[in-house]
Amino acid sequence: MWAGERGGPGSPHGFQLLLRCKTATLPSQSLGQALSQQWRDGTGRGERVKKGILERLNSGEVVIGDGSFVFTLEKRGYVKAGLWTPEAAVEYPEAVRQLHMEYLRAGSNVMQTFTFFAGKDNLESKWKDVNEAACDLAREVAEKGDALVAGGISQTSLYQSQKNKLEIKEIFQQQLEVFTRKNVDFLIAEYFEYCEEAVWAVEVLKESGKPVAATMCIGPEGDMHNLTPGECAVRLVKAGASIVGVNCRFGPEISLATVKLMKEGLEASGLKAYLMVQTLGFHTPDCGKGGFVDLPQYPFGLEPRLATRWDIQKYAREAYNLGVRYIGGCCGFEPYHIRAIAEELAPERGFLPDASEKHGSWGSGLSMHTKPWIRARAQKEYWKNLLPASGRPYFPSLSKPDA
Ligand SMILES: [Zn+2]
């Protein structure tokens, strides 16, 4: 009954299901909810085995990632900016669980463990407890729906200062040992600004035998050693990554431009891999090579740059047209942005997420409004062409990076 089994992109059967969801007078139960239910109570034909990440991608499915964790939990009061470490997995598990739940409901197919910067280098003696708790939370929520668990590692704090390959690989190995014991479904090496360190991460993760995705936090100018995005992608695939792309640091347009360069690099080398993008939820056309961290508003004044749900529908469509089949978000990317991906690509996927029960596609819910000028906004053309105002008449729309 999964999307891939119902036929390829735009299959008539898939579209029928979508229409059925959308035209129901009462949103009694979406397909996603029905499937969630099936996972919960084990109804149907006994135990079902979920399709793995590569099976899904091989069959042409669009995999929707998740969104912001450290940034969002900082705003909610559970993460401290600066270190951006995920102790909340142990200290406030209900906060982490709730955010996972919101992404699942919005349409995410992947629950990434909340293990960003969770190596021994950043967390000292707490690293093990945090990684274990994060795996348990991700698994608990993933089991409530059609989601997989991905164990995530990120760049270390050692690479720039010491560049000690053995020591850095040991940090990755320690995290991998927890992921293996907790039996995550696949692995993601993310947020690497140096290709060399990302390659070490992939080499370690490959030892598990599980599929490995690798995303770098770079823009079109390439990594901090001036390797082009295309060359980075080639090296990551040669190291064993099945899925490559970018996450964080840049907004939708720049992230997609970088993935396009990766795609071209792979094609020129005759290599094959699936493409992945997890953009910021912020617009960053004025970024330098280092991305949004160098903007003067980082990290506490970025709100005026926030992408609308309509911006993210455009992003999802452009990513799809580029051939990217693993689409998600990073810092600033909220559950309603994930829902926007799921809604934009509903014709291809064949169903809407549970959270769409509370959201009429393209503002259609406003057709019930009592004020006629608001009712007039219940249409795609209105929201597609809207120019959002910042409400700040004396403020610049762009700024100059500090570095
Ligand atoms: Zn991020």
From TrEMBL:
InterPro entries linked to this entry: BHMT (IPR051524), BHMT-like (IPR017226), HCY_dom (IPR003726), HCY_dom_sf (IPR036589)
GO molecular function list: S-methylmethionine-homocysteine S-methyltransferase activity; zinc ion binding
Cofactor(s) needed: Zn(2+)
The protein's annotated pathway: Amino-acid biosynthesis; L-methionine biosynthesis via de novo pathway; L-methionine from L-homocysteine (BhmT route): step 1/1
Binding site for Zn(2+): C248, C330, C331
Keywords: Metal-binding, Methyltransferase, Transferase, Zinc
GO terms classed as biological process: L-methionine salvage; methylation
Any matching Pfam family: S-methyl_trans
Domain Hcy-binding: 51-345
GO-annotated cellular components: cytosol
Cofactor binding note: Binds 1 zinc ion per subunit.
Record Gene3D superfamilies: Homocysteine-binding-like domain
Function: Involved in the regulation of homocysteine metabolism.
Subunit structure: Homotetramer.
Protein name: S-methylmethionine--homocysteine S-methyltransferase BHMT2-like
Source organism of the structure: Phascolarctos cinereus (Koala)
